[in-house]
Every structure is written in C-alpha cells, then in structure tokens.
Amino acid sequence: MPKVLISDKMSPRAAEIFRERGIEVDEKTGLDKEELAAIIGDYDGLAVRSSTKATAKILEAATNLKVIGRAGIGIDNIDLAAATNHGVVVMNTPFGNSITTAEHAIAMLFALARQIPAADVSTQAGKWEKSRFMGVELAGKTLGVVGCGNIGSIVADRAQGLKMRVLAFDPYLSPERAQEIGVTKVELDDLLRRADFISLHTPLTDKTRNIIGERAFGLMKLGVRLINCARGGLVDEAALKVALDTGKVAGAALDVFATEPAKESPLFGHPNLVATPHLGASTSEAQVNVAIQVAEQMADFLLTGGVTNALNMPSMTAEEAPRLKPYMALARQIGGFAGQLTRSGIRAVSIEYEGHVAGLNTKPLTAVVLEGLLKPNLESVNMVNAPVIARERDIDVSEVLHEREGDYHTLIRLTVTTETQTRTVAGTLFANRAPRIVEVHGVPLEAELSDHMLYIINDDRPGFVGALGAALGKYDLNIATFNLGRSVKGGYAVALIAVDQPIEQEVLDAVAGLDYVQQVTHLSF
Ligand SMILES: NC(=O)C1=CN([C@@H]2O[C@H](COP(=O)(O)OP(=O)(O)OC[C@H]3O[C@@H](n4cnc5c(N)ncnc54)[C@H](O)[C@@H]3O)[C@@H](O)[C@H]2O)C=CC1
Ligand SMILES: O=C(O)C(=O)COP(=O)(O)O
After folding, report:
1. Fewer beta carbons within 10 Å, N or C terminal of the chain?
2. What is the pLDDT of residues 284-301, one digit of tens each?
C-alpha cells in the first residue's frame, strides 16, 4: 500500500481521500528539515503547501518518493530540478485557489484606498480620527496588473466591475486574450508610469525577482499604491521602504515577503503599510478545493500512473494510464534495444507513431522511449528526467504521427542517429497487449524480448545458422526462441536469439569468431 506524508496544514479532506482510496497517510506538520529528512525515506508521496521546503537534501533522503503534491499554485518551496533528477513527479493545483487569491488582492485594494486597517485600529482605540483617514475612490482609476495569468485576469475582471481601467503587463498574454478579458496590454514601464494602483501576479523567477525595485519606483506616479499577493521576492523591500518614507508610494499592501514567516521587517509599523501573513489562499473554500485536488491527483498517480498538473512530466489521465500501460512496456523495450546497441554519442532521436498508437497521448511514451534509450549508459534515468537529460545533451528529439495503419494495426518506430550511424527498431503490440519487435535496421522479423538475448548481424550465407547452433550447443546454451530476418537475399541478416541462461563473454567471443558475423551483442530486457 503506498504511503503519503502530509507535512503542511491542509483541509482534512486530503487525508480522508487518501484513506478512502486505500493509501496510508501520516499528517506531521511543523517538522524541521532534519526531522523531515529522517522520515521522508518511508514515503511514496509528500503533500505540501508553502511551508515545507522540499530541498535537494530532502529529495536525496527521499529514497522511495515518487510524487510531491502542492496543494496550491507556487512551487518555489520545491526544488524542481532536484525532484526531476530523482525521478519525482511534482504536481500542483493550478486553479483551486485562484479566485480566493484574486479576492484577497481586491480586499487589499480597498484596504489601501480607504486605509481600513489603520482606521480600524484608531477607531477601536477610541480616537475617532475622521479627518485623518481621507480615502481615494477606485472608480475611474487605473489598475496595472503585472502578470495576467489565472489570478491576474480574475483581478482584472473584478477591477473592471469596480469601473477601473486595467492595464496589463505580461509578455505571454496574447492580444486576443487581452481583448477578451478587457485589458490593455502594455509594456512594464508604460504600466508603471500610468497606474494608480499596481497589483503583482507573476511567479517568482529569475526574470521577476525584484521586478519592483528602485528603477520601477522611479517611474511610478507620485502617490501610487502597490499590492503584492504573489511572491515576496518580486518587490525589493528596502526600495519599497524608501518609496513609502518619501511618499512616492502612498500605500503598500503585502501578503507575501522575501523571507517567510516574516516575523520582523523594517517595513513593519509604517503607517501606510497593510500586511497579511500569506493569506491569499486562505479561505475554507479554496483550502477544500486544493486539498481534494491534490489528494485525488496524487492518489491517481500512485495507484494508476495517471498524471495531472505535473510540472516535470507530460500529463496522462487516470483513464489513459491503463490504455498506455502496454505501450509503455513496448516503448521501454524499443528504447532499451537501441540504447544497448548504442556505443557513441546520440545526436538525434525520431519516434514515429503509426496506426492506433498515433491517436493516443504519445508524450509519456516518448519520455519512456528516451528512458529506455539512455538507461544502458547513464545512472538514474527515469521517464521524468529522461527528456531533460536528452535536452541537456543536445539530442534532437522529434515525434512523427501517422494516423493511418501500415503493415501493423499499431507501431512505434525509433530511429537513433549517433555520431557514427543511424539505427532503427520498431515494435507493435500483439492482441493489443504483448510487445513484439517487428523490425530491426529495416529488416522485418518478429521477436519477443527477454532476459538473455543475442543480437547478431551477419552476411546472409548458407550454413551460418547451423554453425551458430553448434557454437551455442558447445556452451550448453539452450535456445528458447530464434528469430531471423534479412535485408535482401545475399545481403545482411539479423538474428535475435533468446537463450535460457546468462550469456558469458566467451560465448560472445565464440560467436563473433564465426564466419560471416559482422556484429554480436548481448541484450537483456
Ligand atoms: N498569496 C498567496 O497565497 C498566493 C499566491 N499565488 C501566487 O500568485 C502568482 C500567480 O499565480 P497564477 O495566476 O495562478 O499563475 P499563472 O501562471 O496563471 O500566471 C502567471 C502569469 O505571469 C506571467 N509572467 C511570467 N513571467 C512574467 C514576467 N517576467 N513578467 C510579467 N508576467 C510574467 C505569465 O505569463 C502568466 O500569465 C504565483 O506566484 C503564485 O505562486 C498563488 C496563490 C496563492
Ligand atoms: O498557492 C500558492 O501559490 C500560495 O502561495 C498559497 O500558499 P499556502 O498554501 O497558503 O501556503
């Protein structure tokens, strides 16, 4: 039974779903990094929010871990590259808390416009400072949305409901989408110059870190108001302090901080600062949404292999997973076949999907072909990291889909180009389940792959098969299956021979010494 650890506070629905689906679950929140490292090796899955830091060290210790589920959106607390290297799938719940977070940004907008938090403190202190808290109206003002994805576009929608004009800076926002959601797409500097309110909704990346710093404040209108419900590192907090002190920024509302938990900050205590402790996603509705989603997604993956919302692996629905399973076996064998024959650097890989398979989700199959191909020569390759490794090694990977059937109802053909040659191998599923190799090097043959196999290329000459049988008999090797094919009469022949025992080097040497043999390789599947 798979075992999951929930290491951040989450709606009880997550644990209930894991249990309902037959997954053992432990809930241990507030662990420090040593405590987490000490127990993580026991788990197949880890469910987190933003507190747990899934660092490279934790992943190193996570010897059984297969999946990390983020009940929320941002995954900056998870070392994605390290997870990928360890073959751990990382998934999030990209929509479960977006409305709630957008609503928090709108709440911040009002809080700033009408200074509600400070007015509340003053009023409850018995001061009745009516003239101190003069506000600004939102209608007719310009809101600049930086990052107009799921949350940014909901904020834009709500702001238009308040009769604000919305400018958006997002390099990936298409003009059509901008028009559809009623925002004006502008460059960042233009937005900074024109906006009365600015709300940030980008992920934290190398490009967005400190995107709002001294230079940006310099461009803004005097008396601008800034809202950050995305990630702390987007705003240079020291520069913000200066901008608040000088009055350039009339108010800033921060839900997120460069270091969290933010128990102290030079910004704290500033009369024009509104601060909340990373509450963007904290509504009961959003927390139930993300808990259900993350538990369902992780359970699907652990129980069926279905992959939804993964950030380091192609998606595969729970319905697709069983249909793809026999193809995964075939893809792994085809990749492994070519990989075991490959002796020099791989330049290009082309995978053709023909007939039935071309109508399926081929992305996971390509990942598995690459895993099979790279595994014989590299440590710790799996379907999660194989596409990344291929990219890092400048291997050009292409997929070709032929929906029409050829000689077979369904076929995967792999062509691998190395520094020295090009090799092809193709396979099908018999009765839609059992993998069979049906073509090697352009030569048709039909072979089931097994543990101990000889792959031989020889000149197509009479007497060769007899000589080979005699040589194997001499070493007491019992032939289980013998599959032969040839290019053309008198050309070259390919043999795939399964034997019952492990094949020693002296057998390979003896076969290599036979007349007409061009190549002999031991293959194992
Ligand atoms: N405060 C909180 O509790 C919560 C914070 N968040 C954070 O909100 C942020 C946005 O989340 P979503 O809208 O769901 O993400 P999303 O991926 O739907 O949208 C992000 C947008 O930012 C844009 N973007 C990327 N790089 C950019 C750049 N250099 N300049 C301008 N735009 C850029 C993307 O094109 C995309 O449209 C994330 O950082 C997420 O972690 C999300 C949920 C809760
Ligand atoms: O979903 C996100 O990106 C969030 O920032 C929410 O964080 P949380 O789950 O509330 O710790």
Report:
1. N
2. 999 999 999 999 999 999
Is the domain spanning 3-94+285-304 CATH 3.40.50.720? The answer is yes
Q: For residue 492, count other CB atoms closer than 10 A to its CB.
A: 18
CATH of 319-440, one of 3.40.190.10, 3.90.1150.10, 3.30.1330.90, 2.40.30.10: 3.30.1330.90
Atom of ligand 1 nearest to the CA of 169: 31
Is pLDDT above 90 for 343?
no
Question: 413 catalytic, yes or no?
Answer: no
User: What pTM was estimated for this model as a whole?
Assistant: 0.85
CA–CA dist 78, 241 (Å, integer): 29
Read off φ and ψ for residue 411, nearest 5 degrees: -155, 140
Class level of CATH domain 98-275: alpha beta
**Whole-Å CA distances, 177 to 156, 174, 221:** 12, 5, 27
**pLDDT grade, residue 319 (50/70/90)?**
confident
User: CA-to-CA distance for 345 and 77, rounded, in angstroms?
Assistant: 36
Q: Is 278 a catalytic residue?
A: yes
- 450-525, CATH topology level: Alpha-Beta Plaits (3.30.70)
Is the distance from CB of 414 to CB of 349 less than 8 angstroms?
yes
Pick left, alpha or beta for residue 89 (phi over 0 → left; psi -120 to 50 → alpha; otherwise beta).
beta
Q: Given this chain, do its domains 3-94+285-304 and 450-525 carry the same CATH topology?
A: no
Residue position matching structure tokens 């909901």:
154
Compute the distance from residue 69 Cα to the ligand 2 centre, in Å: 12
The pLDDT tens digits for 71-96 are 999 999 999 999 999 999 999 999 99
C-alpha closest to that of 270 among 85, 161, 112, 452: 112
